[in-house]
Amino acid sequence: MATLGIDIGGSGVKGAPVDTIGGDLLTERFRVPTPQPSDVTSVVEAVAEVAAQFDDFDRVGITFPGVVVDGVTRTAANVDKSWLDAPAAELFSQRLGKPVTVLNDADAAGAAEVAFGAGHDQRGLIMMLTFGTGIGSALFLDGVLIPNTEFGHLELDGKDAEARASDRAREAEDMSWEKWAGRVEDYLKHVEMLLSPRLFIIGGGVSKKSDKFFPLIDIRTPMVPATLLNNAGIIGAAVAAEQAETGSPVQV
Ligand code: BGC
């Protein structure tokens, strides 16, 4: 009953078999660079290359950096536009010869954090936000995922929030931590005004450096860094793949 989790990110496609009870990887993960351009055919091959490193798995959960409804990818903000309306779950499943569940990358990372990491044992409305190439969001009410929320595309200062406050924007504009934290604070204040979550879990690669920017952010809502870091997407994808077999919504 082994389950493989695979995370399609802006720079790498990473995967490993997952212990979905303990919330950990069963072996070291394997990574290949995300193909450029990141079109459907190339990414399906990259995923197959990762999966080929592992034998003996029964099902696969795969994250995608966009909206995914019933296995079909509906948006493609930071990947090749060939993903718009692609039957992703079917394509991966045909290539890998196993049942495949595809879900949004932030939803997967959030599911893992709420089940095993920074949101463990927290009830009520919890929001995970990932700051990376884009801004991903995942919303949970009493441990049940409300999928595909896309709060990274709220408008901030007249622009798409992720164009102003993602980690990519910080790097591209060579912003100081102070300047970037100011934008993140504006963004978080906007989100808390709209939703009043009980907790923000801040993920994405930059959450490793939370000591550099958390002290600069002043908001009402408690805020914690993600704890599973690079493996959250892989773990959450595997959990979702197992739950899909019972037809239940992602619940943690
Ligand atoms: C996408 C989201 C995704 C986020 C992080 C955004 O641009 O629209 O679906 O979760 O980036 O990858």
TrEMBL record:
It comes from the Bacteria. Pfam families: ROK. SUPFAM superfamilies: Actin-like ATPase domain (SSF53067). Belongs to the ROK (NagC/XylR) family. This is Polyphosphate glucokinase.
